[in-house]
Design goal:
- This protein has 119 residues and is α+β, with helices and mostly antiparallel strands.
- It has a single domain, classed as Ribosomal protein S10 (Alpha-Beta Plaits), CATH 3.30.70.600.
- The chain has helices at 2-10, 31-47, 97-104, and strands at 21-28, 51-68, 78-93, 112-118.
């Protein structure tokens, strides 16, 4: 009986239906840079007392390429390469203009792309 009440009290309540939400999608080829950028974004949002959900790791996109080693003769000699795109999702609930301004002025490392949408 006590365990069920603990679980119910730990459950996160859903955001209000009319509440604004800022959805940030961080992408990059190096997972360490992606995690570092996500931490920097979350620290900036928490400095302005925002409610942050995440970072949520999204599935990694893997692009594989197979190429011939030589130009003409050896069809059986091939090399395989892959590029991994790591992604994280961060939601900021009820953002104010100070948070948006701070996030736009944020200096992030090269190799990290951020998509910002209001949901």
């Amino acid at each position: 009986m006590a365990e069920t009440t603990k679980k119910a009290s730990r459950a996160k309540r859903a955001p209000e239906p009319g509440a604004a939400k800022l959805r940030l999608r961080v992408r990059g080829y190096d997972h360490a840079l992606v995690d570092q950028s996500a931490k920097q974004i979350i620290d900036t949002a928490l400095r302005f007392e925002a409610t942050v959900v995440g970072p949520i790791p999204l599935p990694t996109d893997i692009s594989r390429f197979t190429v011939n080693r030589s130009t003409f003769v050896d069809k059986n000699a091939r090399e395989q390469f892959e590029m991994r795109t790591h992604k994280r999702l961060i939601d900021i609930l009820n953002p104010n203009p100070k948070i948006v301004d701070a996030l736009t002025n944020l200096s992030l490392p090269s190799g990290v792309a951020i998509d910002v949408r209001m949901v």
